[in-house]
Amino acid sequence: MVQLQNSQACLEACISCMEACNRCFHQCLSEQNHDELSECIRLDRECADMCAFAVRAIEAESPFAAEICALCAGICEACAKECQMHDHDHCQACAKACFTCAEACRKMAA
Amino acid sequence: MVQLQNSQACLEACISCMEACNRCFHQCLSEQNHDELSECIRLDRECADMCAFAVRAIEAESPFAAEICALCAGICEACAKECQMHDHDHCQACAKACFTCAEACRKMAA
Amino acid sequence: MVQLQNSQACLEACISCMEACNRCFHQCLSEQNHDELSECIRLDRECADMCAFAVRAIEAESPFAAEICALCAGICEACAKECQMHDHDHCQACAKACFTCAEACRKMAA
Amino acid sequence: MVQLQNSQACLEACISCMEACNRCFHQCLSEQNHDELSECIRLDRECADMCAFAVRAIEAESPFAAEICALCAGICEACAKECQMHDHDHCQACAKACFTCAEACRKMAA
């Protein structure tokens, strides 16, 4: 029961995080000066892809779901820490979604 | 304004359709006899991937978003028609999500 | 026979193009001033994803392979034209791979 | 130098493995009786996606490339062991590509 709740929460967090990363990626590239946003842009792409992969694993009840979520937690946290350093609204929103997803993925992986 | 509403509706329909296809894919393969579900399984995978790609295009305000959604509408409709022929709950649910997504994608592409 | 040759050529072109786009994406973001490379970075990501999707369609003998390759041709051409405008070696290499892939995809789609 | 060689070898192994999994997925679903191939079909999809993700990580020199390859090694090995149990040529070819990729990914992750 707890496992099912964790799974559903993790799924929702991964989808929200994927969306926040996709939007932050696009908006970073729309900023006038995005030289300092390189790592943010890179991590946004990787984190969005990782979350999409985790979603498929959870929905397919993959035997690797826990391991995939453990890796996803690490990538989400790195993306959150990078985004957090930038004042843009999209970076702050992305950081928040990434931290939430990292926590949900850690519970799922436990 | 209408465009923005179409875009948001299309985004939500693509995410729901992606999820329904992922679940139907997994559940088709869990059926005791899934020989007759081959096309359903194939289309579930392709449709889930197509929807995920459309989501990225919409969220990145891609200049190809309309063309991508036009293609997505075609794949969703094919998946819907295939799923509709099978009585399993997951196939019926998937057919519904695919038809909804096909319509939202057609509006987005218009 | 011609169709099989087109299919194999298209597959190889899509994989090479995907790789060139992935590398160009990374190297654009490593340039000291990448403000003028925004469109390049965006299109690199979209084109890499599109090529990966086309690869799956060809290898799965998807009934949508021709339509997917037609769309892929358009995205490859846009990416090629953008990359071509930048002097960096990775942009020039990417432009070349994208033009080759666009042509192979058009033959596949025909 | 050794690291660069490992990276290039891993990249090539991941692309070959992705292709073998895509083909095995399609051909499993084309077999007359694919009830016993369920796990093979599931793992083919997951392994193809995992390899595509690893390719992007290697080509983007991601700080997570080693961790991603470690996970990829595990999924490749599971897919190899499953495919190995089936006599179909595509399953045997896929098993071989998966074992090769698992080994290349382990070296990359080390």
From TrEMBL, chains A, B, C, D:
Gene3D superfamilies: 1.20.1270.360. It comes from the Bacteria. CDD domains: DUF326. Pfam families: Csp. This is Ferredoxin. It comes from Bacillus nakamurai.
